[in-house]
Write a structure and sequence with these properties.
The chain has 284 residues and is an alpha/beta fold. The chain contains 9 helices and 9 strands. 45% of the residues lie in helices and 13% in strands. A 7-stranded parallel beta sheet has the order 3-2-1-4-5-6-9, with helices on both faces. The radius of gyration is 20 Å and the shape is globular.
Length: 284
Amino acid sequence: MRTPLPRHLRRLPGQNAIVTGASGAFGSATVAVLRHLGVNVVGIDHKPAPGVIACDVTDDQQVREGVAEAIERLGGELDLLIHYAGVGPSVDLGEPPHAHALQALEVNLLGTWRVTAAALPHLVRSRGRVIVTASLLAHLQVPLAGAYTISKRAVSAYADSLRAEYGTHVGVTTVYPGYVDTPIHESSRATGASLDGLVPAETTRDTVMTVVRAAGAGRPPRDIASTPLGTAALHLTRHFPGTTEQIVSLQLGLLLTDGTFADAEIARGLHSRHGTPHAPTTLS
């Protein structure tokens, strides 16, 4: 005999969902949980897999065709759209925006916008929901993560604006995970500018179950963090930005003094401006 679902999940069985970034850590785990709960799910991702349609969210035509194919596989109905597709490059904001910075905006912000726009007529018809994944970094200005922070702040603003225009017919939730050790951090690690230890550490499960609970809630929550510590951090960063900046500045100074970014060429300017002795050298 199957155990009855908790009340906050009972609306999910039989619903139809699209998950972006479905081949990634968050996306694949969410797809598995939703299917276990009886949700019909089709994923989209630039890396195709069983049940996952190949789709580059930076390409208008691929998005239109990918979303249309996903909805066709779901029988023409869509109740839930969950966004995970994202990238997390390290950049120096003192440099003009280059390919990595532009990619962060194209994938994190405009990809979310494109996919939502393609799915919106079906979500309006079903009085469905959109769940957007932002980040605690949306309101936490960490050096060298500027492109990611800007894109995630913009994603949060997009969700708020979407709610203002479509909230009478579509529920909109923004989820704010902390630091989760997933492949999105590989690019920053490659530059020697990892965010390890700079923001609250969480698990994949924290984010996935937060998203699933938001999808199943009787009323869609507006903004939600993944853990109690994340909730406190979200409150601090949104309502006390000056205090947050002071904390980050102090922590950054300590990290630079300890040589945390000693091998990061991208951090050369930071070392120089802070007068720390561990500025990386370029090999000739």
